[in-house]
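haha ok so turns out i had the wrong file open the whole time. this is the CORRECT one, sorry everyone. sequence first:
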Amino acid sequence: MQIVLTPDLSLGFGHKIIWGALALIFYNCSMENLGLIAIIQKTGDEPLSFNNEEIGIKLLDFWRWSASDLVSNATRGRFAEFIVASALGIDTTIVRDEWSAYDLESKEGVKIEVKSAAYIQSWNQKRHSAIRFSIKATRNWNAAKGLYENEIKRQADIYVFCLLKHIEQHTLNPLDISQWDFYVCPSTLLNITPGNAKGISLKRLKKIAEPIAYNLINATIVNIKT
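then structure:
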């Protein structure tokens, strides 16, 4: 049954507000629950089209245009997640979940948050960047319910801090994973030191975790007690 609300425009301002509120309530109640979209990994060969005709551009062209700068903060962060996922043997044919409360989940069910930083940026710099990682507590986004949960906490069991440590601009290559250091730290330790802080400096991080190479990430996470 379809219900149509037809307000009387001759009513006073207060009554119009009530009619508006009622219309909004009926609109929200009548909205279809769209649910989650099942994302399928693409190949890059998918063509763009206009009016059902291909326009000579493929999805790979967009990827090249938007993600070639691996030094930029946003792209470097996603690339760091991919590096850690590969080190853990996580199935990367499953598309990255943009809205997950944490970045990765190991085969053993360990929830992992990945953070990245670098001394060298894409822009013109007068000096190397000071290294600092975000560790702020968050509210979990419940994708199934479409809302944020009330509890504020660090959602992951373990943090992996990825530092692109190379300091020579002319030889910087994020694809060379030997130019990275990785610091693995359980959230329980971050909850104690530095507690409720929103960020942690490299100097402070080194007091609670040691830098490791790419090939030691998996073993370190497996052996760590959360």
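The radius of gyration is 24 Å.
again sry for the mixup
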